[in-house]
Amino acid sequence: MSQASFFPSRTVAFYMVRMFLVRTFVIVAALVLVLQTLDLLSESGNILAFPGNGQGEVWRYVSLRSPQIIAFVLPFSVLLGTIVTLATMNQNSEVIALKGAGLSAHQVLAPLILAGLAVSMISFAFNDRIVARASATLDQWKAVEYGPLPIDRGDRTNVWVRDGDDLIRVGQIRGRGDAAQLGTVTVYDRTDGRLTGMLAAPRGVRDGDGWRIGPVKSFDVASGRLTTLDSVVIGHGVRPDQFTLSNINADGLSFGALKEAIDDLDAAGRPTKTLEGALWHKLSGPLSAMLMPILGAVAAFGLARSGKLFVRAVIGMALGFAFFVADNFALAMGSLGAYPPFLAAWAPFLLFLMIGEAVLIRTEE
Question: Quick one: signal sequence residues (predicted)?
Fold first, then answer.
């Protein structure tokens, strides 16, 4: 075998990748079957409680819930598949044979890392195209207690929009685009952060690049004078979609749709840090499948006959589960604003990549 090639043997690479993928997806199937069964036992009563629901609605719930469970267990399955594959190879002295042929630890793991990268890309596509849609539909279905899904007509309530230094509050919005109609409009006229006046009107419609509201009651803070006007045009440059934005469910949106929603919210002057963290995590989350072979590699090296193979496998599992704990903790800190969005999504991945490399180099020695 040549040291010049990172994959010195195609036969060995295919052999390891096949073992790894078979074990990973068998574990995925087993975990999904168990977790879906337990979840269905807890939810079937709520589904059948709605009049008219039956077996069809139960299977519909399974079809919507299963993608979420698959996305949840896939990183764990990759970790377990890695440990089982490498522990088996170590037990059969296959790793020793590869090392004896002149392969470094990274060359031994290279096929699994490449396979993990492929699983990451599949996971991203699966989450983006299937899980997001299933999550959005299931959330809507749960909101109506598993009854008929209502038609979303675009109505929104209690929306705030920033127009320069001013703030616009709309009690209710009906319709979309230029046909949007505003109800119970209040404009807070501010100068350098200080409130100088207020406008209030029961309705508003699109007028050019702004919004015509009326009849208007205008209050001037400095003089304390209250006046009445027929109509006033406000919000020049404020787009209709800035009013029709609702609360964003990051899990129910694809990567592209979430990025567009964040841009719209940012243009509307609303906070987006939590959603930005969720956006970055849509990339770092699936990429954790590539990290698992490095964290589980501790099970591959060291003599199996030393009696410490089980301990090494436990260490690999501990590293993997510690990553998932750190990942969830960082996301929670990002949601609270304690961590920047990029750091909340990527810090655990980069940290455990360095830890995995350090452990790998130490165990190889």
Answer: none
